[in-house]
Amino acid sequence: MPTVESEVVVNAPLERVYALARDIERFPQFMENVEEVTILEQTPERQVSRWVGAIKELRRTIAWTEEDFWSDQEHTCVFRQTEGDFTDYSGRWEFAAEGEGTRLRLRLDYDYNVPLVGALIQNLLRKKMQANTDAMLAAIQREAEGGSINDNR
């Protein structure tokens, strides 16, 4: 299964960055390729959400439902698709204090099988998934460094 990873150091406190990432319903406000996020179920440790993302180059959307497991003690989130357009979709967010900032990591494992799609399209999809993962972290970095979320320290 293909995997993409991205990492960034955010010039904002760990609790701010972590709180922003947990507030997934806000993602469409500052992430270009996220059109809609709706929380369907939520407890302090688990949430189920419905996502709609845009693939602008192909003029289409992709939708899925995912289950997230948050650990406030470890500052991590493990997630997996429960239904949707991906054949398989899962990953892990990690947040760690680094000086006065936060190191944010995202690993994404995915599979998107389309009959009769060759290696060329799979390579294009991998590049798109990597670009999207990088863009998500960059958007969180911009939003956290801009200070538009309350500092929960």
Please, could you describe this protein's structure?
By secondary structure, the chain is an alpha+beta fold. It has a single domain, classed as START domain (Alpha-D-Glucose-1,6-Bisphosphate, Chain A, domain 4), CATH 3.30.530.20. 27% of the residues lie in helices and 46% in strands. It has three helices and seven strands, in the order βααββββββα. A seven-stranded antiparallel beta sheet has the order 1-7-6-5-4-3-2. Helix 1 packs across helix 3. The longest helix has 28 residues. 21% of the residues are buried.
Number of helical elements: 3
Strand content: over 45%
Q: What structural class do helix, strand and pairing data support?
A: alpha+beta
Note the overall shape.
Answer: globular
The average pLDDT value, as a whole number, equals 90
Calculate the terminal CA-CA distance, rounded to whole Å: 39 Å
For the largest beta-sheet, the strand count, sense and barrel status come to: 7 strands, antiparallel
| Strand runs, count | 7
Instruction: Name the CATH architecture.
Output: 2-Layer Sandwich
CATH class: Alpha Beta
Neighbour order of strands in the largest sheet: 1-7-6-5-4-3-2
- What share of residues is helical? 25-40%
Describe what is shown at a glance:
The protein is of the alpha+beta class and 153 residues long. It has helices at residues 14-22, 27-30, 119-146, and strands spanning 3-10, 34-42, 46-55, 60-71, 76-84, 88-98, 101-111. It has a single domain, classed as Alpha-D-Glucose-1,6-Bisphosphate, Chain A, domain 4 (2-Layer Sandwich).
